[in-house]
Every structure is written in C-alpha cells, then in structure tokens.
Specification:
mainly beta; 6-stranded antiparallel sheet; 5-stranded antiparallel sheet; globular; binds dtdp-4-keto-L-rhamnose; dTDP-4-dehydrorhamnose 3,5-epimerase; RmlC-like
C-alpha cells in the first residue's frame, strides 16, 4: 500500500510509493489513480514535466498558475535531491502565507502533492538533479506567476544560503506575495 502523509497544510501530502527490488533492479508504480483515490486524492493529470539542474543551489520558484489554469502537481526526483516547498496562497485561508517542505530524493523515492491554491518551489541540494512532475492543467504562460523565494512574510528556511542560489531572471524579478493577485480565495 502506498503511504500518504500530511505535511501539515490543507491537501499537501508526502507520498511514498512502494519499490519492489529484485536482482534485476526495481519496479514501482509512481502514480496509481485508484490507490490514491482511496487515500482521498483525486487528480486528473494532463502533462508531465522534467527539469534538470546542473548545480546545487538552483532555485526554481515560487511558482503557480492562476485559474482557470491552476495546477495540482505531483513532484518527484529521479537523480539527486531537492528541498521542496508548498506555500498557501488562498486569500482568507487560516494558513495563508504559511509554508511546508519535504526533502525529495531519488534515494528516498518520495513525492510531494502540491494542490491548486499553493505556490511551489524547490532548491537543489546536489549537482545534476532531475525532477519530474505531473500537472493537472496545461502550461499557460499568461497565467503563470512567480513569488519571491525570499519573501520575508513567508520566511522559508531554505537549507542553501541565498548567496549560493542560482535563479532565473524571471524569479529574480518576482514580486512579494502581498503585492500579487493570486486568483485563489479560501472557500
Ligand atoms: C513550466 C513550463 C515551462 N515551459 C517553458 C517556458 C520557458 O521557456 C522554459 C523554462 O520555464 P521556467 O523558467 O518557468 O521553468 P521552471 O523555473 O523550472 O518552472 C517550473 O518551476 C517549478 C517550481 C514548478 O512548480 C513548475 O510548475 C514550473 O513553474 O520552459 C514550457 O514550455 N512548459 C511548461 O509547463
């Protein structure tokens, strides 16, 4: 049975799929809709993404897409490791602006489910890290938004010093959560 653990925020879970190891190698179901539905997780995924980061300290995020292109994301690591973060951006939520995190690694074979209404980001902990994730809505450039990963109102305790981080120009220029229309309202 697949282990599903709450990460303390509404709908954010760590998922640990079983891995069947034998003399040839291993086999693992990395997404099984019926099994996850039994754990209360129902998502229709429409796109798979794969990113490669050359060095430790690559910071991607915090990202989300506005409705109607909001995305649930199921994220895992094929090589290396990341510190992976979800932030509640639903205005009016009792946990608005709160973050939670899990270290994802190829060795641990764990995943994070980041639902709609949450921003997502990660920093790589090792060089040559590959991250793959499923998303429940297609990419839409006009709907994508970034929030500063060093937003002091969110105050994420990243395990890599800011001076060692590598950001895209888009993320360097990202606004603070307080200055952003997220498009998500609680209930
Ligand atoms: C996200 C995305 C990007 N692209 C293109 C746009 C751009 O030219 C290039 C690189 O895009 P980015 O710089 O946005 O890539 P990246 O910074 O890796 O963005 C990703 O970060 C993580 C944290 C997420 O949660 C993802 O949803 C996504 O936002 O890839 C697509 O074609 N499809 C996509 O779904």
């Amino acid at each position: 049975m697949v282990d599903v653990l709450s990460l303390g925020l509404d709908g954010v879970f760590e998922i640990r799929p079983p891995k069947f190891v034998d003399a040839r190698g291993f086999f693992s179901e990395t997404w099984n809709a019926a099994k996850l539905a039994k754990a209360g997780i129902s998502v229709d995924f429409v796109q798979d993404n794969h990113s490669f980061s050359r060095m430790r300290g690559v910071m991607r995020g915090l990202h989300f897409q506005m409705p109607p292109f909001a995305q649930d994301k199921l994220v895992r690591v094929l090589r290396g490791s990341v510190f992976d973060v979800a932030v509640d951006i639903r205005r009016g939520s009792p946990t608005f602006g709160k973050w939670t995190a899990v270290t994802l690694s190829a060795r641990q074979w764990n995943q994070i489910l980041v639902p709609k209404g949450f921003a997502h980001g990660f920093v790589t902990l090792e060089p040559d890290t590959e991250v793959v994730y499923k998303v429940s809505a297609p990419y839409s450039a006009p709907h994508e938004r970034s929030i500063r990963s060093d937003d002091p109102d969110i105050a994420i305790d990243w395990p890599v010093p800011a001076t060692d981080m590598v950001l895209s120009p888009k993320d360097e220029a990202a606004p603070f959560l307080a200055d952003l229309e997220t498009g998500f309202n609680y209930r």
